[in-house]
C-alpha cells in the first residue's frame, strides 16, 4: 500500500525532487523491481473477463506468466537491465495489515458470490479483482520464467521493497522501480514510478531523488521516516486526524515522533494504544535485507528450449509468438552493450540554471505535451474544491500541482 | 534583450536539419560570445554540441545570458517558411516566453515575422573534458556519409579502426560482411578532398551506425568532417561551420561485455 498521500505531499512541498524522464533515458541502467507487486498487477489486469482468467489446459492461471514475459521483454528491448526482487517472510508488524487485507478479501469473496447470484457484471468484475491473491505457486512460476529469460532474481529475506532499496544503496542497481512509495522510506537513492506503465498510456517516468526530497522538505532521513509513519504506513496505525500535511508541520516543529507525542493535544488527537511506531521506524531504518556482496547480478542469454517447454508445452502459449519473443530478447541482449555518455562525461551542476529567464515561467510556458490547456482548467477546478485539497498552502501550487495531476492517474493498486 | 541578424539564413536551416533527427527539445543558450546548444538524445548515447560565434553574425546583441527552450520540430516548421537566401533575425525580450523570427528577402521587398512559443526544458549539461585523442581522421564529409549509409544496409554496428595503413570501417550482418579502408591521401586538387590521418596509437572502437547516420545529416554544413577517436572516450564527429563555429557529435562506444555474461 505504501505511504498514504506521500506523492501528493511531495508534489506540493518538494517539487524539485521529482523529475519527468523519458522511458528511453534508462537505457543501459540496472533497475530493481518489486516482483510481487508486478505479479499482483498482472493477475488483476491481464486476460480477465468477469471471473474468467487466462488459464492453461489444466485450468491454472497463466496471466502472471504472460505479463511477466511481455513486460520484461519490453524493458530488455529498451536496453534496461531489470532485477526482480521477490518478497520473503513478512515482518511481524505487517501481519496486522495483512490480516486486514485478508478479511477484505474474504468480504470481497462474499460480495462476489452475491454479485454472481444477481448477475451484475460490473460488480462481478470489481469483486473478483478484489479476491486476487498472489500464491507461492505464482511466485515460483515467475522465478522460473525469469531465470530462463536470463534475468537475475533476488529473494529478499523479508520485504522486497527494502531489498530493492538496499541494492540501490549499495550501488548494485541504478534505481528502484515501483508504484509503492515505501521505497523512498526505505532509503532507495533513486526511485522511479510509472516505469512499467504501458507505453500506450504515454505517462512519463517520474524519478524521485531521496536526497533532494530531504533537502526540499528540510528534514533528516530519520525525520522523513517519522513523517512517513505519521502519514500512514503498512506497519502500524497512524494517529486519527493527522494526515501528511499536518505530519509534515509537526515534524518540522518538533523534530521527532517522541517530541510530537509529548507536545500534542492528546484530547484532540487519539494516539493508538501501544502504538508500535518505534518498531515501524526500526523496520524502515534497519530492514531485514541481504547485504551480501555475493548477490551477483548477471544478465545472460535466454534458455530457448527451457522457455518453450515452460510456456508452450506446459502452459499452452502459442509457439510462434514465443519464438518471436525469444528472438527479441536475443536482439535486445546485443543492444544493451551500448555505452551511455554519462559514463564518460559528468553532468555539470547547475550549468543551465543561471540561464533561466524568469522564476515563474513554469506557468507561462507549456512544458510537456502531457499538459495541455485543458488540464489547466481541470487543475483550476481541482484547486477550488476545498474538500480535495484540505489545507494545502498555495505557494508551490503552480509547479507542484502540475506534477500532481500526472500522479492522480497512477495505478491505485495495493497488495 | 537579444537580437541576432544572420545574413546567410540558410545556415540556420542546415544547422537545424543536422540536429533535429537526434533531439526533439533543446535549450539554445545565448551569451555575449555566441549562440550555442548542447543536447543529448533520449537514450543518452549521443550528444550534439553547436556553437555559432557572435563574429559570424552581421549584428549580434545579447545583453544578458539567456536560454531558450525550443521544440526543434516546431522550429523547423518556422524555418521552412524562410527562403534559402533570406536574412534571418532572431529577437527575444528578457523574460519573454516567446522568440521572434524575422525573415527578409535579399531584395528587401518582403519581410515576414513569426513568433514562436518557448518551453521550459529541464536538461543536464555535461562537462566535456579536453582530451588528447589517439587518432584524428579528416576526410570529405560526403565520403564519410556514403560509407555510413552503405554499411548500415548490411549491419547495425561499425568497427572503426585506425592503423598505420589507414582507417578501416567494417561491419557484419545476416547477409554478409563489409570492409572499407580509406588511406591517407593528400595529393588532391582541392584541399577539402584530402584524407588526413594523424595517429598516435592504433585504436579500434565499435559504434551503432544508426547514430552515425544521423550525424551525417550535418554534411551540408561542411565539406570535410573530423573524426577523433580514443579507446576510453566517445568518438567526436565534427563539422566546422566556416568562420562561425561547429556542430560536434559525441557518441558512446559499444562496450565489450565479459565472456561470462554472454554465456547462457
Q: Calculate Rg of chain B over CA atoms.
A: 20 Å
How many individual β-strands of chain A?
8
Radius of gyration of chain A: 23 Å
Q: What is the CATH fold-level name of the domain at 30-173 and 304-338 in chain A? A: Rossmann fold
Q: What fraction of residues of chain A sit in β-strands?
A: 5-15%
Count of helical stretches of chain B: 5
Largest sheet of chain A: 7 strands, mixed
Task: Supply the CATH superfamily name of the domain at 30-173 and 304-338 in chain A.
Answer: 5'-nuclease
* CATH fold topology of the largest domain in chain B: Proliferating Cell Nuclear Antigen
What pattern of helices and strands is seen along the backbone of chain A? HEEHHEHHHEHEHEEHHHHHHHEHHH
Q: End-to-end span of chain A in angstroms?
A: 6 Å
The count of strands of chain B amounts to 19
Task: State mean pLDDT of chain B (0 to 100 scale).
Answer: 91
- Low-pLDDT segments, ≥5 res of chain B: 258-264
Question: How would you characterize the largest beta sheet of chain B?
Answer: 9 strands, antiparallel
Class per helix and strand makeup of chain A:
alpha/beta
**Helix residue percentage of chain B:** 10-25%
Shape summary of chain A: globular
The total count of helices of chain A amounts to: 18
Low-pLDDT stretches of chain A are: 351-415
Amino acid at each position: 500500500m505504501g505511504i498514504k498521500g506521500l506523492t501528493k505531499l511531495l508534489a506540493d512541498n518538494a517539487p524539485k525532487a521529482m523529475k519527468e524522464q523519458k522511458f528511453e533515458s534508462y537505457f543501459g541502467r540496472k533497475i530493481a523491481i518489486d516482483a510481487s507487486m508486478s505479479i499482483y498487477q498482472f493477475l488483476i489486469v491481464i486476460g480477465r473477463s468477469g471471473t474468467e482468467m487466462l488459464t492453461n489446459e489444466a485450468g491454472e492461471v497463466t496471466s502472471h506468466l504472460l505479463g511477466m514475459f511481455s513486460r520484461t521483454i519490453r524493458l530488455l528491448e529498451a536496453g534496461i537491465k531489470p532485477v526482480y526482487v521477490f518478497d520473503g517472510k513478512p515482518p511481524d508488524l505487517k501481519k496486522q495489515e495483512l490480516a486486514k487485507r485478508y478479511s477484505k478479501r474474504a468480504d470481497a469473496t462474499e460480495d462476489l458470490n452475491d454479485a454472481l447470484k444477481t448477475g451484475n457484471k460490473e460488480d462481478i468484475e470489481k469483486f473478483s479483482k478484489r479476491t486476487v491473491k498472489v500464491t507461492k505457486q505464482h511466485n515460483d512460476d515467475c522465478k522460473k520464467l525469469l531465470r530462463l529469460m536470463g534475468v537475475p532474481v533476488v529473494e529478499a529475506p523479508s520485504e522486497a521493497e527494502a531489498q530493492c532499496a538496499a541494492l540501490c544503496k549499495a550501488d548494485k542497481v541504478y534505481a528502484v522501480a515501483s508504484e509503492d512509495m515505501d521505497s523512498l522510506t526505505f532509503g532507495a537513492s533513486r526511485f522511479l514510478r510509472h516505469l512499467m506503465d504501458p507505453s500506450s498510456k504515454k505517462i512519463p517516468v517520474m524519478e524521485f531523488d531521496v536526497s533532494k526530497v530531504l533537502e526540499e522538505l528540510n528534514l533528516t532521513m530519520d525525520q522523513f521516516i517519522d513523517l512517513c509513519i505519521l502519514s500512514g504506513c503498512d506497519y502500524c496505525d497512524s494517529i486519527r486526524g493527522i494526515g501528511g500535511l499536518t505530519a509534515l508541520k509537526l515534524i518540522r516543529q518538533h523534530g521527532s515522533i517522541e517530541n510530537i507525542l509529548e507536545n500534542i493535544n492528546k484530547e484532540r488527537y487519539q494516539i493508538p494504544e501501544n502504538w508500535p511506531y518505534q518498531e515501524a521506524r526500526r523496520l524502515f531504518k534497519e530492514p531485514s535485507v541481504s547485504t551480501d556482496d555475493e548477490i551477483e547480478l548477471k544478465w545472460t542469454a535466454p534458455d530457448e528450449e527451457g522457455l518453450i517447454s515452460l510456456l508452450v508445452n506446459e502452459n499452452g502459449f502459442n509457439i510462434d509468438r514465443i519464438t518471436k519473443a525469444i528472438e527479441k530478447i536475443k536482439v535486445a541482449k546485443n543492444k544493451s552493450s551500448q555505452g551511455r555518455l554519462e559514463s564518460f562525461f559528468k553532468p555539470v551542476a547547475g550549468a543551465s540554471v543561471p540561464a533561466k529567464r524568469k522564476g515563474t515561467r513554469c506557468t507561462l510556458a507549456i512544458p510537456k505535451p502531457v499538459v495541455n490547456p485543458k488540464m489547466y482548467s481541470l487543475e483550476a477546478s481541482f484547486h477550488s474544491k476545498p474538500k480535495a485539497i484540505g489545507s494545502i498552502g498555495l505557494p508551490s501550487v503552480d509547479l507542484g500541482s502540475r506534477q500532481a495531476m500526472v500522479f492522480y492517474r497512477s495505478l491505485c493498486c495495493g497488495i | 534583450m537579444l537580437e541576432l541578424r544572420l545574413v546567410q539564413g540558410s545556415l540556420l536551416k542546415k544547422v537545424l536539419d543536422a540536429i533535429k533527427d537526434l533531439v526533439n527539445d533543446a535549450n539554445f543558450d545565448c551569451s555575449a560570445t555566441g549562440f550555442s546548444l548542447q543536447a543529448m538524445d533520449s537514450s543518452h548515447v549521443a550528444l550534439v554540441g553547436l556553437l555559432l560565434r557572435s563574429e559570424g553574425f552581421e549584428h549580434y546583441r545579447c545583453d544578458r545570458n539567456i536560454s531558450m527552450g525550443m521544440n526543434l520540430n516546431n522550429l523547423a516548421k518556422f524555418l521552412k517558411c524562410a527562403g534559402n537566401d533570406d536574412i534571418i533575425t532572431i529577437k527575444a525580450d528578457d523574460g519573454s516566453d516567446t522568440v521572434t523570427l524575422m525573415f527578409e528577402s535579399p531584395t528587401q521587398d518582403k519581410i515576414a515575422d513569426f513568433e514562436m512559443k518557448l518551453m521550459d526544458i529541464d536538461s543536464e549539461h555535461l562537462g566535456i573534458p579536453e582530451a588528447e585523442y589517439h587518432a584524428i581522421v579528416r576526410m570529405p564529409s560526403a565520403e564519410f556519409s556514403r560509407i555510413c549509409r552503405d554499411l548500415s544496409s548490411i549491419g547495425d554496428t561499425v568497427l572503426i579502426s585506425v592503423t598505420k595503413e589507414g582507417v578501416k570501417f567494417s561491419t557484419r550482418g545476416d547477409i554478409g560482411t563489409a570492409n572499407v579502408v580509406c588511406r591517407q591521401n593528400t595529393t588532391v586538387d582541392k584541399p577539402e578532398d584530402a584524407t588526413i590521418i594523424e595517429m598516435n596509437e592504433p585504436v579500434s572502437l565499435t559504434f551503432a551506425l544508426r547514430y552515425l547516420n544521423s550525424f551525417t545529416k550535418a554534411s551540408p554544413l561542411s565539406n570535410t568532417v573530423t573524426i577523433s577517436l580514443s579507446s576510453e572516450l566517445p568518438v567526436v564527429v565534427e563539422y566546422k561551420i566556416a568562420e562561425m563555429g561547429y556542430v560536434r557529435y559525441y557518441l558512446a562506444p559499444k562496450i565489450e561485455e565479459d565472456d561470462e555474461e554472454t554465456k547462457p
